Amino acid sequence: MAMVKDVDVRGMQHCETTALGVLLRHEGLDLSEPMLFGLGSGLSFIYWDSKAMGFPFLGGRVKPFVLTRNVAAALGLELRVAETASPRKAWQNVAGPIDAGRPVGLQLDSYHLDYFSTKVHFGGHVVAMYGYDEQDAYLVDTAPQGGAVSTSRTGLARARAERGPMAARHRSFTITAPSGPAAPQDRIIPAIRTCADAFLNPPIANLGHRGIEKTAGQVPKWLSRSGNPREDLPRAAVLMEQAGTGGALFRNLYRDFLAECVRLIDSSHLRTGHRLYTEAATRWTQVAALVAAAGESGDTENLVQAGAILHELSRIERDAMRALSML
């Protein structure tokens, strides 16, 4: 058996921030989950639909692993990333650092992990690994998934080898903090402005505040868009409120990040952004409840109300990001 000593196996709400937290705490940097999410410029929005999809997808964060790269760059950390098509080499990339006393981050497909009760393919899932024996690998996942967990090495190999949307080629990574890492407070404003710029100036209408406005027009049609509304709509609501989002499609995390920032930086723009994202988080939870109710009842009026709130959310989040862009 190989086991990294003194690993803080605290699970958080979101998978990527959970893994980041494990690796950073082992390097002596203990940051809150909202701070990790905010320093990674993690907030975003995407509405995606196509004929090949069974139901539209709503996303509230940047692409998998972008957050990790952003945090490493912001704090001046050494991020070593390994990818390979070889399962043998992929195992060596993980076992080597663990044998040397360093936890490793993994991007994989959660479908094959033994402890996942909901079997859905998602290739953008991220965990931290801190040990292994002949049969099992010892991981840290989100608090809802159990925090410190284990899965068979066979299942882990399948999860890492799976191909599909958002999947990576057996991606593993380690983080090393320099002797004098950048102070998180010094990186807050650049991270917020990066996030705001991307949100306010999306390249296509499916993204950012434009994407929320587009969603406002599409959601009222979801009963007819779905082949199985009683399953599809409640599932969409669960993905907004649970599924590692921290609630309100990641808006709770960003609200709490801005609350931390307000305590560190005296800025009216920051206070405005925090106030508006507090409102946005509440309204996203209302949208999720209305979508779930529409699926259960078949009542289109719930979706009409959700569309009206989304229209307001587009304005609220646009105004919030405009204020934050002036930091």
Automatic annotation (TrEMBL):
InterPro entries registered for this protein in UniProt: BtrH_N, DUF4872
A family per Pfam: BtrH_N
Domain DUF4872: 155-324
Record-annotated Butirosin biosynthesis protein H N-terminal domain positions: 14-142
Name by which UniProt lists this protein: BtrH N-terminal domain-containing protein
Lineage: Bacteria, Bacillati, Actinomycetota, Actinomycetes, Kitasatosporales
